[in-house]
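pls design
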């Protein structure tokens, strides 16, 4: 298949923020591959989203070993799209993967052992048919494995050239402090912390954001629309095709009267500003100077366009 060609002045259409005190800039909007790029997703729609994103200045694509469904399928989908169209732009794009959540059966298929991380990065590279990823994350803290073992695995993955930078995700402040210190002492300073941050879930305001900034790491926000709740579409019932209908990662129980009243309030505020709910939600996150990028999910191109319009 012919390689994708530059068709837009992409770098004028996007803003870039420095990731902590590193040399790396990330696009303010990044594209995530968690739930919409699995084996049952439509290849052509996925390809359109990825190419549209790149064509509009998105340089950060966020993956993980377990994204699908089933686990691994999103990396395979990304690899197919990548080699079909974007491959020649490798040096313009940041590709991230992660290990830590359940991925394969048995005692080594999840958490933070050296065995899991090293095997996982090799698997991810094979699925995406890449020589290296730009960022490799420890996807979640492991309460049992010594933190030093997990961090040393990240250091060795970077040293081996399989990743250019290391990141951590969802670590509580006390564990993050040790992780930052270990990585810095081994000359692989943490590039970035990835955490959930949106109007509904502000947990990272309890120290995580400030800590990342003080440690010289960037912060990237995941689930910025709280999996779709902040798009306005849940205000009058649950749409038939919405994520909450799958009952998997977004549970019905969360939609309490109290939350609905907050959603209505933010909706009114967005209306008063003459912007959409999506724009309101994403701009609210990007107002924080610690935030480098927000990783949006999109089930189709229209959804992705609505997120991009927040800029
Ligand atoms: N580090 C971690 O542990 C972690 C955890 C979660 C996610 N992440 C990363 O963050 C990325 C984004 O997470 P997310 O998918 O939860 O992000 P999100 O942007 O909060 O939610 C995306 C979902 O919202 C709905 N949506 C988006 N735009 C819409 C629009 N204009 N109108 C109506 N509905 C719309 C769609 O769901 P429906 O249409 O299906 O309802 C879409 O799939 C992931 O892909 C992943 O890369 C990381």
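designed seq:
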């Amino acid at each position: 298949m012919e390689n994708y060609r530059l068709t837009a002045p992409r770098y004028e259409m996007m803003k870039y923020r420095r990731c902590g005190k590193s040399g790396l800039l990330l696009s303010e909007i990044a594209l995530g591959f968690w739930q919409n790029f699995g084996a049952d997703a439509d290849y052509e729609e996925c390809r359109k989203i990825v190419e549209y994103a790149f064509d509009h200045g998105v340089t950060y694509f966020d993956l993980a070993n377990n994204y699908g469904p089933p686990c691994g399928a999103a990396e395979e989908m990304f690899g197919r799209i990548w080699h079909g169209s974007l491959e020649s732009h490798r040096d313009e794009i940041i590709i991230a993967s992660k290990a830590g959540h359940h991925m394969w059966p048995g005692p080594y298929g999840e958490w933070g052992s050296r065995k899991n991380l090293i095997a996982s990065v090799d698997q991810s590279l094979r699925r995406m048919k890449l020589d290296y990823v730009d960022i490799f994350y420890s996807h979640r803290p492991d309460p049992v494995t010594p933190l030093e073992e997990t961090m040393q695995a990240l250091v060795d993955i970077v040293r081996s050239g399989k990743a250019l930078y290391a990141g951590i995700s969802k670590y509580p402040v006390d564990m993050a402090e040790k992780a930052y210190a270990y990585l810095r002492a081994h000359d692989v300073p943490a590039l970035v912390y990835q955490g959930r941050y949106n109007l509904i879930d502000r947990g990272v305001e309890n120290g995580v954001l400030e800590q990342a900034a003080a440690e010289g790491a960037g912060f990237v926000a995941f689930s910025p629309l709280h999996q779709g709740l902040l798009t306005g579409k849940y205000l009058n019932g649950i749409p038939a095709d919405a994520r909450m209908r799958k009952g998997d990662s977004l549970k019905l129980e969360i939609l309490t009267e109290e939350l609905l009243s907050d959603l209505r309030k933010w909706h009114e505020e967005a209306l008063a500003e003459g912007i959409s709910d999506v724009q309101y939600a994403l701009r609210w996150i990007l107002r924080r100077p610690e935030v480098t990028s927000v990783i949006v999910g999109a089930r189709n191109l229209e959804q992705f366009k609505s997120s991009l319009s927040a800029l």
